[in-house]
Design brief:
Layout (H helix, E strand, L loop, with lengths): L23 H9 L4 E6 L2 E5 L5 E2 L17 E6 L2 E7 L21 E2 L9 E3 L1 H4 L5 H19 L10 E4 L4 E4 L5 E2 L4 E10 L2 E6 L11 E4 L6 H13 L3 E12 L4 E10 L13 E6 H8 L14 H10 L5
Parallel strand pairs: 1-5, 11-15
Antiparallel strand pairs: 1-2, 2-3, 2-7, 4-5, 6-7, 8-9, 9-10, 11-12, 11-13, 12-16, 14-15
Length: 322
């Protein structure tokens, strides 16, 4: 697919330098360098700065915001000759008035740490991802994904013993049984299913009224990507899918998915809804989608900007999928 690397969180060419993760002395030296940067992350929210909140708030390693951080920084890689790290600062309690929004489907709250100026604030990544440069978006997604993985994997899945962080945040090691645990992502197929001029869309009951997106679902063990596309579409909507092809991929650290964007051609059109998975599914025309994206529809809201669903639908509308 032309321009597939322009999908949010991908394509910045960031140098992760995995070879340096096993050299803690060298990384300590890099962390002390004046040119190095550390991204604070509070409860999954990266620090941003700028009048429009369009840049990551990268700080020096000795900044007071890290004073109570219990864990060492994780090494992200090298960017423009500078070492890039990220560090959890979730020990800070945060303003109580904003806590109800944390983790919500739409969280537009922003928090300012007492050691930071007002132009630095923590913001939910899905709310700001389209404002960030490709490099900043990839850094933020990498940091959030790593910290989500650490939060869910404090104990060994084999023996239950507590694990220790090694390789600058890219491994957890069990001292009891010797098992090594590495960050994992969950593959998810997301499908642009068409029939002539129509597109198949669906919605979850937890979404804002009128919001629809492409059908998606997790892959299962022993399953090919193509088989997962056909199975998920049939299970959720009863639609039979024929030809399937790959379009684009997107890291999606909410909490740990890799979205695999696929295109499929429907061989049937009658929808049999699975009410456990979806609140609604429907066929909509290009004209229906165009009206929704131009805010001319009273019943249909476009998929979230920055998500791969939005990216794929936009390219389908403009006939630039191939």
């Amino acid at each position: 697919m032309k321009g597939a690397l322009r999908v949010t969180f991908g394509g910045s060419g960031f140098d992760r330098r995995a070879d340096l993760r096993k050299d803690p002395q060298h990384l300590d030296h890099l962390l002390d360098e004046e040119s190095s940067h550390v991204l604070p992350v509070w409860r999954g929210k990266p620090l941003i700065t700028g009048q429009n909140g369009d840049r990551l708030g990268l700080l020096r390693a000795d900044h007071p915001v890290f004073a109570d951080a219990p864990d060492r920084p994780v090494f992200l890689g090298l960017g423009d000759g500078a070492a890039m790290f990220a560090r959890e600062v979730s020990a800070w309690a945060g303003p109580l008035s904003d806590m109800s929004a944390i983790g919500a489907f739409i969280d537009d709250s922003e928090q300012t740490h007492p050691s930071l100026t007002k132009d630095h604030r923590f913001a939910e990544l899905r709310q700001i991802m389209t404002r960030l440069s490709a490099r900043d978006a990839e850094l933020a997604a990498t940091a959030k994904g790593l910290f989500e993985w650490h939060a869910a994997n404090g104990f060994c899945a084999h023996c239950g013993h507590r694990t220790d962080v090694t390789q600058s945040g890219w491994q957890r090691l069990c001292a009891a049984c010797g098992r090594q645990h590495f960050p994992r992502v969950d593959p998810v197929v997301i499908m642009l299913i068409t029939h002539g001029n129509d597109l198949l869309i669906g919605r979850s009951p937890a979404w804002p009224d009128g919001m629809y997106s492409l059908l998606a679902g997790f892959m299962e063990p022993g399953e090919t990507i193509e088989a997962a596309v056909r199975r998920e579409v049939f299970e959720e909507s009863g639609i039979i899918v024929g030809d399937v092809s790959y379009l684009a991929g997107q890291p999606w650290p909410f909490p740990a998915s890799l979205m695999i964007g696929m295109r499929g051609t429907a061989q049937s059109t009658e929808i049999t809804l699975d009410p456990v998975e979806l609140e609604d599914a429907r066929w909509v025309s290009r004209e229906d989608i165009a009206d929704a994206w131009a805010s001319r529809s009273t019943t249909l809201i476009a998929a979230r900007k920055g998500a791969i669903a939005h990216y794929l639908i936009r390219n389908w509308l403009s006939d630039t999928l191939d």
